[in-house]
Amino acid sequence: TEVTEKLEEVVMIWSKQIRQVLVESEQIRREADDVGPSAELEHWKSRMSSFNSLLDEIKSSRVKKIISILQAARSKTLQQWKELDGSITIAANEAKDNVRYLYTLDKFFGPLANASPVMMEHIPSLMNTVCMIYCTSPYYNTSEHMTSLFLKITNQMINTCKTYLCEG
User: What are the Dynein heavy chain tail domain coordinates in residue numbering (predicted)?
Assistant: First the structure.
């Protein structure tokens, strides 16, 4: 029982740290007013990397051994652990899926940033791709995500126009 108690303490510390990561990942992002759409992709790539690292750690042999010992001891801390494991898996899947979908927009980011204000040739394809993401993504199709993406696309268009006016 002494070993079980020590292992439960370790799992409780891990759980607290994981909860902190999950809470921080859900906080509202503070970004500059003129940030472009490539920042959205970078955000999700960073988040994917963080959660994949966390998943790798959770699936390590060391952690699995501790969890199996606690399962054999019928520890009450395992219910919390399973919930956190599920939450991390969902967050990692969301980030991975969002990166996959946002990469379909990546080909538009360069032309959008470097075009003249007559960037209309890129807009229909860009909007069709955004529509496809909205219709097919299981995670990215929320009004919050879409609003953020459209705001960044608009910011990029405005920045491109400003640059064109200042250089022309």
Answer: 5-166
User: Which pLDDT tens digit goes with each residue over 121-168?
Assistant: 788 999 999 999 999 999 999 999 999 999 999 998 888 888 888 876
Q: How many CB atoms lie within 10 A of CB 72?
A: 9
Alpha-carbon distance of 45 to 43, in angstroms, equals 6
Q: Please provide residue 60's backbone torsions phi and psi, each rounded to the nearest 5 degrees.
A: -65, 155
Domain spans of the chain, in order of start: 2-167
pTM above 0.70, yes or no: yes
CA distance 87 to 77: 16
Q: Do 104 and 133 contact (CB within 8 A), yes or no?
A: yes
Q: Phi/psi class of residue 142: alpha, beta or left (left: φ > 0; alpha: ψ in -120 to 50)? A: beta
CB 158 within 8 Å of CB 36: no
Please name the residues in contact with 50: beta carbons below 8 A apart, sequence gap of 6 or more: 21, 25
Fill in the amino acid letter for 116.
S
CA distance 156 to 150: 10
